[in-house]
Amino acid sequence: MDLGIKGKWALVGGASKGLGLGCARALAHEGVNVVMVARGAETLSASAQALQKEAGAQVKVLAVAVDITTEAGREAIWAVAGGPGKAYDIVVTNAGGPPPGDFRDWGREQWIKAVDANMLTPIELIKATVDGMAERGFGRIINITSGAVKAPIDVLGLSNGARSGLTGFVAGVARQTRLASRNVTINNLLPGAFDTARIRTTLKSAAEKAGKSVEEVAEMRKKTIPAQRFGHAEEFGQTCAFLCSAHASYITGQNILTDGGAYPGTY
User: CA torsion sign, 46 to 215 to 153 to 114?
Assistant: First the structure.
């Protein structure tokens, strides 16, 4: 299927590895020019170079090693040489989740950091790009949040709270007529258990708490998933690419679960 987005520009956060890289790769393979953002310069550069080789010379792949949660970092993205400025057609927001733990141990500093990264930064990126999208008559914003928004995980309280705040914000702004009627959609993509560095951190915390090995906890977790496995970044990226496509123009304000059937609810 031709997704109808060849030649457009995408900004992808957390793109050096994991789910962010999966999204960047899927978009680039559709002919989308991609600006990849992450804090780790070495890993990001290697990932961008590899993706450029995969996608070919007809696609631009740019790497910006900055902290996107800061105003200076975002300004560097808008100013990157060869990029589109703020005239992005696609924005995929993605920040590393806060560390797991017990809410009794978190103070104001930890909460502010979580909200800043996982709620306020996506909002700033939306604010900077969405009106331009509406003027041009095309826009796709995908926020990578978490399946924990629908089924909270006790040790991920910082993430549960911050990401739920973003979810509530998106539910309202995505339904603004001046955006939806101009072919601008905003959706949240909720990953369940994917084979990434993030889940390995969570599994390690759970293993220490339960007095079991990481391998034992991982196998137990897989058994709670109807698909009986963890997801792969590549399949997550393909879902992201479809939501960014011309064919997804009637989908907005939604929370799309990709969790192998793990969430047990009807709604």
Answer: negative
Are 126 and 171 in contact, with CB atoms under 8 Å apart? no
The DSSP symbol for 123 reads H
Q: What is the pTM of this model?
A: 0.94
192 contact partners, CB below 8 Å, separation of at least 6? 147, 225, 231, 257, 258, 259, 260, 262, 263
Q: Do 149 and 160 touch, CB atoms closer than 8 A? A: yes
CA nearest neighbour of 7 among 125, 75, 88: 88
Give the integer Cα–Cα distance in Å for 223 and 263. 13
Q: Pairing between strand 255-258 and 184-191?
A: parallel
Q: Tally Cβ neighbours within 10 Å of residue 32.
A: 25
What gap in Å lies between CA 147 and CA 234, rounded to an integer? 18
Strand partners, 65: 38
pLDDT tier at 199, thresholds 50, 70, 90: confident
Q: How far is CA 32 from CA 1, 51, 156, 227, 239, in A?
A: 15, 12, 34, 31, 15
Residue 16: CB atoms within 10 A of its CB come to 24
In the chain, % of residues over pLDDT 70: 100
Sign of CA dihedral 239, 241, 243, 246: negative
Query: What pairs with residue 188 in β-bridges?
Result: 143, 255
171 vs 128: CA distance, rounded Å = 18
pLDDT tens-digit map of 69-120: 999 999 999 999 999 999 999 999 998 888 888 899 999 999 999 999 999 9
Band of pLDDT at residue 188, cut at 50, 70 and 90? very high
